[in-house]
Amino acid sequence: FLPEATHIGDACTADIQCSKTFGAQAQCLNNGTCGCQKDAHFMEDLCYRSVPLGGLCRVRNDCRNGPSTFQATCIRGECVCTFGFHSSADGWECIQNILLDGPCSLDSDCFLTNNSRCMGGLCGCQVNFISSADNRRCLRCLGDSCTNSRQCVVRGNVTNVTTCSNEVCECVQGYTPNDEKTDCNGSTQLLAIFNTVLLALFAVKLLRDEFITVTEGLNSSNRNICDCNSIPLLPPNNELSS
Question: Which of 12, 30, 47 is the last residue of a domain?
Answer without folding.
Answer: 47
